Each structure stands twice: as structure tokens, then as C-alpha cells.
Amino acid sequence: MNQTTTVASLPATKKRKFKLPQEFSILLVLIGIALIFEVLGWVKRDQSFLYNPQGLLIMILQVSEIGLIAVGVTMIIIAGGIDLASGSVVALSAMVASSFAQVVGYDRAIFPSLGGLPVIIPVLMGLLIGAITGFINGAVIVKMRVPAFIVTLGMMVSARGLARYYTGGQPVSMFTDDYLWIGSGSNPVIIFLAVALFFHIVLRYTRFGKSIYAIGGNVQAARVSGINVGKNLIAVYTIAGVLSGLAGVVVSARAQTGQSGMGMGYELDAIAAAVIGGTSLAGGVGRITGTVIGALILGVISSGFTFLGIDSYLQEIVKGLIIVIAVVADQFRKKRAS
Amino acid sequence: MSKVQQQENSSVSQQDAEYMFVAERVSKSFPGVQALNKVSLKIRPGMVHALMGENGAGKSTMMKIVAGIYIPNEGQLYFKGQPIVLKSPRDALGKGIAMIHQELNLLAYMTVAENIWIGREPRNMLGLIDHGQLFAQTHALLSKLGIDIDPEVELGSLSIANRQMVEIAKAVSFNSDLLIMDEPTSAITEKEVEHLFRIIAQLKAEGKAIIYITHKMDEVFQIADDISIFRDGHHIVTKTASEFDHNSLITAMVGRELSQVFPKEDVPIGDIALSVKNLGLKGVFNDVSFDVHYGEILGVAGLMGSGRTEVMESLFGINPAKEGEIRFDGRQLKIKSPADAIRSGMALLTEDRKKTGLFLSLSVGENMQIASLPDHCNMGFVKQSEVDELCHQMVGKLKVKTPGLDEIIENLSGGNQQKVLIARWLLNHPKVLILDEPTRGVDVGAKAEIHKLITQLAKQGVAIIMISSELPEVLGMSDRVMVMHEGKVGGILSRAEATQERILALASGM
Fold first, then answer.
1. Which residues of A fall within a CB distance of 8 Å from B377?
2. Domain limits at B399?
3. What would the pLDDT profile of A119-176 be if each residue is shown by its tens digit?
4. How far apart are CA B304 and CA B104, in angstroms?
5. Where do the domains of chain A lie, and which CATH numbers do they carry?
6. Does the interface ipTM go beyond 0.85?
């Protein structure tokens, strides 16, 4: 597989043909879309779309938030599942983390006596909330054999409700400087890239990663091969939950406020990023690198349209089309390959 | 095929109206398998025509062609003297050919009436379904056939036997002139068999032709007018039932010489590796006991549905048995999952390669190493170069034809896919290797290589259990043969005792 040198050097098998990585075609799409906006930028506004550090940073910051969730969702989809709860879990963990991140002596704080806690406390609370929701998702799916779609749909509704109930719908703000640092500058981007790299390695080089592909590829064969399907699935959902929780921390720190309406619709953007990046909803197929590019495509489209001053409603229409076209193009590519 | 027969076949033409249905030199192949080879068949009206043969002889394939499910590669079909081309089951039904399937294809959450008339429901003036009429005509149909089932209950609430009766009623409801029944009695009790036979007599009296596939000898002599024997995708002979007796029927089914050379070598048989006592799983199999020794190949024969696959899957922890005990090297074992079985030194090559074996979306390498990753990990990280090296050795040793380890396994032929799955288990160095239909859907060359490999493994002292539907394979490879019949061990034969006739007799419960 990745040990290409070994494969090529062994006499038993034919010399391996050089193959472009699966992500190559989708990378071309990303570059193509960016270039189209570049041209349109010069035509309509006499400005460069790409040579615009400020605009690009904003775009990449937004991509990072969706991207964090999308990494977890990609693993879930590879394992043959789905996660609709991620956007709501972002909101819930943002609320809970925020409530532990407020400064000392702020009399309208959620926990007035707990002001000025070290930054690790709110961060861990956010991750814990994510882990709990993810574990519940996984456990109900595995132990009670309820379809993932239903379980995570239920969690999506309940977690959003809980996020609102937590403060009675009131936003939470006045964070410590340490907490705000998490969302400042390009820190969210660094966090996202570190997470993406970490799970890229997990998926490709660990037994856990390979088990996930096997479970999504053929759950019965995976069981016969000695894989503990239930344990691995619960782990995947829990990890995805933790990543949604992390996204909640990052989102609230960057916005300098925790609000129960945060992360609205993120779950669908994350699924879209994974699917555009070549992850198959049938399971067993997908890569983190593809998902990162998929998230970038979504980001470039929305920032490109904003850059050109095009109606946001029109943006949505095009975004929907791109999702479907990306998958159709991928099907064509696969058919041609086989 | 003899010259005389060929001349007969070519003389079949539109004038041959005395036959309800004629198939002329029909062939069908699937990737790697020639399922039917120039088969000709003539079915008389008002008669029951039984098709017999071993598993894989081509009976079901032939019937699926008659019912429009498969499209033949060559050959011509005639129905009531007219040449016909069937493109779909719907096509066949429209012309008057209906099939009762071996697996039930019914909708569990719809009523009996809806199941029978699906897609042909009576409608009222508004074009909506007329439920009153629907139930009335179902009631009429069922009472004509003497079936006592409420048309308004959900099908899923019925017993398997009653569902089978509904399936039969459905086939009759098409008013077809040719009915195909593929092992209709495999799931029903004696009483219902009698009922079915009464229905068949009624249909015969109406001049309808019935093609009847079965493995049960007594049934054939009770009901069939004509009997055709299939073997290895060829039509062997057709005679009237009175021209056959039990022995001549079995001889015709088995017929062939042991032409293939099986490289079975005598190797010293070691101690008992695995000992199974009174294993039972309610409704599936019971009181199954057998031993397998190191270095021994234990063949397992039996008809489909005899429980042979289920016993092995249970042994391997896929569907653990509720009763009985399993001893491995003399120590009692509790196997609750395949992971337990693998840890204790067992391996199972499953019967259905696609369903429970392959990860079609993954590469050859990934498919091969998935079960042995626990042995090649460091802190959860796979030692990829180490395990790839072992996979390469396997590719060479088993002569797997693949461009490389990273080829997607879906692109390999059936035989090579099977070799990859065998390699998966060999990487684990099993002490007991269970092979369920190791050469099904595999071309001749790969088959010989797999046989050779099995022998080599036995020589190395591996205890081997080999399930096979092919009698020559069982006879050629096994040190002993266990024959299963209806969830029980019908008998265990030594290599000297085992003949095709004896195995077939035990398998059909005679």
C-alpha cells in the first residue's frame, strides 16, 4: 500500500504502475474553482481573489471549524455510519466550555464563584461534553441496534435543546485572555491541521484505522476476521464527539462568546466536505486529505461569492449543485478506472 | 452428448406443439464458471417434470433462465410451440411462466392479499385499489387451493410453511401454464407436503406443466412423471419416472468417473485437535459430535440446508451454539466470537466470499492482512513493511495473480480473490483450518492449486475441516467424510467406506 518501494522492488509481482493519488482530481477541482474566482475578481472588481491575505485567513478560519468536525465525520462515514449531531454538539460544548471560561469578578457570570479558572478546565469540559454525546451515540447504535441516522438525529435535536436550556438561551461572554488566545490569529487553523494530520496517521498506519475501513467495507467479514466491531464503532463515535467538542471550544473562543445557535447546519457542511473529498456514504472508502480539500472547496466557494458581492441565496444554490456534481464526477472517475 | 440426441434436438421446431416448453442447446456462463453447457429440455403439458442433480449441477440456473431471471448466452426457448425470448421475470409471467423460489421473496409487512396481487391489484373507478375486491379474490384463490390462511394478516406473522403456501398461491394466481417449483418442500412439514401434492394434482388436471426441483428421492417417485438428470452443467438424461429406480437414479446423478486428480497424500495423522460433543443450536442443528486430528482432512458433505455451514459458523463463534462442548487440545473452550476462535488457533474460510469474506473496496494487501494485524502491531501502529513482506511471500506462494498489493480486490478474478482469503488465514498460522466451499466459483487451474495447498497444509500438521458440495472433491481430498442431514450428523465414513453412492444416500436420509 503506502510502502510503494517494497511493492516495486519485489520480483514476485509486476512493477507497480505510477498512480496519482485519489485526491488529485479533487485538488484540481479546488484549483479550478479558485482560478475562476481569480479571473472573475479581476473582471468584476479589478482585484485579486487569491492574493488577499486578509480574505484568505478569514476563509481558512471558517474552514477550520467545519474541518474539525469533518475529520470525525469522515471516520464515522468510513466505518459505515453517519453523524447528524455534530453541529448541535458544537453549540452545547461551546456553551458549557464558555461557562467555565469567564473572568474573575464578573457578577453576571454563570458560575460567579468559578471565575478565572485555568484555561485547561473549560477546554476539558468542552471535550468531555463532546465525548459523552459521542459515546451515547455509539453505544445506542451498537448495543440497541438503532440506525445511526436516527440516533444522531435525536442527539442533534436534544443537544441543541440542552444548549439553549443551559443558560435559558442567554449568550455567555467575558472570557479569560487564555481562553480567547485559542481562537486568536491563526491558532484555529493550526489546531485543525494538527488534528487532521493526527487522524490521517491514525487511519492509515494503525490497526484501529484499518479496522474502521474493514467495518465500513463489510461488517460481517470484519467480524469473521476477528475485529471487535462494537468496541471500534463506539470509539469512532466518541472520537467524532470529542472533535465536535473541540470545534465548540474553538468557535466560542474565536467569536468571544458562547451562543446556543452556534454550529447551525455545520453537520451537513461537514458531511458535504467528506463526500466531496471522496468519502463514500456506503462506507469503507475515504481519506482525511480528501476531506480537507473538500472543506476548502466549500470555503473557497462561499468566500469567493462574498468577494464578488453575489447574493447569499445564490451561494446556497451553487453550493448544493457543487456537492452533487462532485459526487457524480467521482462516480465517473471510478467507472472509468474499473 | 450423443449424436442421436443432437439430431433430436436440432429437429425441434415450431411443429413440436405436443410439448408445453422446449429449451434447445441453452448455455449460460458466469465469470469463471460454465453453469450450463448446451442443455436441451422438453416439458410435457399436464405432467410433473422433476429435475435432479447434485448442488451446482445447473438445475437452478436452468430454471432461472426459464423464468426470465437469467438471460442465456446461447440457445433457444420455445413455449407452446412458439420461439420466445425472455428478458425479465415480468416477461415470463406475462407469457404464462411462473416460478416459486427456493428463497422466499415476499414482503413481510404487507398482507397476504397484497403480497399475492402486488402490482396487479384490482382497482375501482377512481383508479384506487379496491380492497374489498382484493380480499375477495384472494379468499377465492386460497379456498380453491384449500389453503386456510386469512388474506388480511401480515405475511410476516405467518409461519415459514404458511409463507411457502402463500408463495405457491401467488404463482398459481398468474394462471400460468408452466409452474417452476424450486425445492418447495424444503421448509414445510409432512402434512403440508401432502397438501402441496394435492394442489399439484389439481394443476396437472387443468393441463398445466410443472417443473419440480428436489433432492428428495422418495418425493420424486411419488410425484414425478418425467425425470431429467443434470450434472456439471450438462443435461445427462430424461426418462419417465417408471424407468428409474433409486439406484439407477443415484448412479445417473453421480455418474462420472473421478477424472480429476486430487493430490491427496497420506500423511501421519496426529492427536485430536478439535473435539466437538453434542453441539446444538435450536432449530438449526442438534447433537453434532465429531473429532478432527492434526494432519487430517475431514470432509463435510450434505445438501444445502443440512446445517453443515451453520455448525462450522457456530464453532467459529459467529453464531455460538447453546448446547454441547468444544475441546481444543483436550481443553474445554468457550467461543463467543470469531475473535475468541482466532485467538485459540482457528480459522474459517466462509462459504459466501462476497458476503462474509471480502472487503471489496479495499486493496489486496489490506484484505490479506486484516486478521493478522494483532500480531504485527507496535503500540497500535501497524508494522507495515513487515506485514507487507509476509503478504508478498503469500502472493508468491499461492500464485495470486495481481498487479500488486495495492490493487483493489474487486478487480481480481474469483479464484484469485479466494486465494487472497486463504492467505488471510494462513498468515495467522491456524492449528485448525475450516474451509467452507474452498473452490466454489473458482476456475479449474486455481482449483487444483487450492487442492494442492490444502494437502500441503495437512502435511504440515494443520487439522482441516473441508465442507464441499462437490462429491469428487470430498472423496478425493478427505481422510474421513462427515455427512450432514437435516441438522444432524448422518454418518461419518472412513476414506475406504466413502463412495459417492453412500454419501448421497446418507445426505438424503435414506
1. 206-207
2. 358-428
3. 999 999 999 999 999 999 999 999 999 999 999 999 999 999 999 999 998 999 999 9
4. 15
5. 53-333 (1.10.3470)
6. no
